Amino acid sequence: MESRDFYCYEFGEFRLDTRRRSLSRGGEGVPVSARNFDLLLFFVENGGRILEHDELLDKVWAGTFVEQATLQKGVSALRQILAEAPEFEFIKTIPRRGYSFVSPVRAVPDEGELVYVRETEREITIEEYEETEDERARPATRFQELPAAAPAPSRLAKLKHYQIPLAGTSIILLGLLGFGIWTLASKARPVFSVENIKIEKLTTRGDLNGVVISPDGKYIAYAALENDGTSMWVQQIATGRSSRLTPKMQASFWFYTFSPDSNFIYYTVNRNSVLAQNGTFRISLLGGSPQRINEEAIPFMFSPDGTRIAFVRPVDGQLQAIASGTDFSDEKLVTTFSDQFRLWSMNWSPDGKNLLFAVRKFTAHSTVHYIVEFPVSGGPGNIVMPEMDRQISSAIWLPDMKSVLVSLREVNAEIRQLWQYFPVTNEFRHVTNDSNSYKALSLSRDGRSAVSITENFYGAIWVAEDAEYNFKQTASGTSKFAAVCWTADGRMIYSATENSVESLSIMNADGTQSRQITTGHDGVRLYPRVSADGRSVLFVSTRSGSRQLWRTDLDGRSFVQMTHVENIQIFDGKLLSDNQTVVFCGEEPGRSAILYKQTSDGTVTPLGRENVDAWDVSPDEKYLAYSTTDEHSQKTHVAVKSLVDDSLVKAFDIQPFSHLRWTRDGLSLTFDAADEESKEIFLQSVAGGAPKLLAKFPAEQIPSFDWSFDGKKIAIVRGKQLNDAMLINLVATPN
Question: Which residue, 141, 185, 297, 334, could crosslink 270 as a Cys pair with Cβ 3.0–4.6 Å?
């Protein structure tokens, strides 16, 4: 690509800013993922040309393993972002060939001076422009959608930075030559890059609960959640051949890892009715009878040299990280985490000197996530990745110990992508950037192969309006639907994730005339609920900097912040008929979720101290129904209390799986339940009696349901969660 003095393109009502990598429409930002931005930019820069399928895949997805279906999804996403209609088209399909960008494009000079230096094919870019003092003070961060926090002190941060001027190239080359000779003479670790990764799907069964790769990179092991039980499996990566290692059992498999020689698999079993089948087990890669090595279900990790293990043990509400011999002898306390912390992952450093943790910490005003490591020999820890408000599901050092591979939740969607993070420069690089959600992480010993679990929910919105509750599908597509609720005029508000953002939309009951009403910059888990009068919607948003409840009209034209609470993480809420009073569910640091009530003057008071899962307010706003779990018996039941004096009215021995809703006449409660093979919806009369089955959906999930205001229709989000193993091959080059 040749140098140019413009970095913005305008077409239609849109402006594409290549320097800031942003898209706007009429001056308002339009959410677009990094990959879709690259695709749109390539279209715009090649306007009028017929771009064949292979050319688009080669240029936009260079170095990744993708098919034409990926391109089709990308084009479909762009068409929705650009709101294409039959009478106005930006991207034209050329049958059996490819696509063409047919809208007139105008190149616009950008303010400021930039100088681009590019290498052919590899597109290595150096950008220079005049920075503000604040920008000079910040460390360079390649992906600015991530927090530009200053790198926290770590042992890596002790390395020095040098700036090399462009002049004196011959001196630099001589220096590099000498450095190369020195490198060859020493046993330097390879440097790992994510520029040319290859991604391969290893399983297609959709029922994986986790995955781990063997140290030699030849096998994966996983637990499969089959209809009649859970079992351990092993699969050879090269051939794809898999075999069951254990019989199916009604139990939870919490953890699995390989022995250092890749010959055995260790796993833990818990919650089995047969006590002898609980604990930590070892089984040969070739099969045979499992051997119980510990009566406790203790997840552990082998050190790189295989001589020690590390595990976590709960003690008096705290978590102790311990290193010991492989037989659990010679224990040494590494560190202790208080009840403020939750651990998401633990891994050894490649040199075996430290333990790396991805943690969540509850503070007085918020919940933060970061990565920290502690020396196995004892001593204070070092922050590897600074605090952020995005969940870090897993973190592991790459063998060169210059970067960390992390599974990180996206800013505005409940999906996780894989990133490479460099502690010294506070730089983030995309490893994956697609519609999948990557959860677990496991790395081979040489660091060239990683495996992860992709989580994808494929669902649709269904509506029943007859006495037999025969459901008909009204909305589907590439969106990942999360919630649905009715408006007073018979339309539906729903939340869905697309293009790495979650947003609210409104549509007719038959699925027509769908229109987005929020921009996708509200964080994750919006949990919309239509107000009692049916004319506005209450939802959770982080647009003010913390999770608060906001209200908008059904057209999305006006937004009002309804709560301003501190020290409470809000999950969801309901706006009562006065359009001022709000009942919401929230969680204080270190406590269980409870219900609160905020009156019109902003006063917030707890509605009891019982832990709450699913809940709802009756249509007449006199009663509150919620499910709670007894701390001693661990049994779940539903309580109905007066919203006026907090007195207990009724209690039912029912266990909602995740949702509880009053019927519009206030005479019954609707709840979902799950068995081993299906998801069901029941009616429980407030007067008493046995629950009545309304609907049953084999092997599916129901994230949300709601009754229409006239009480004649029920809408549900139903679908399947598919979890599979993905292999990510990283490129290692000599240091």
Answer: 297
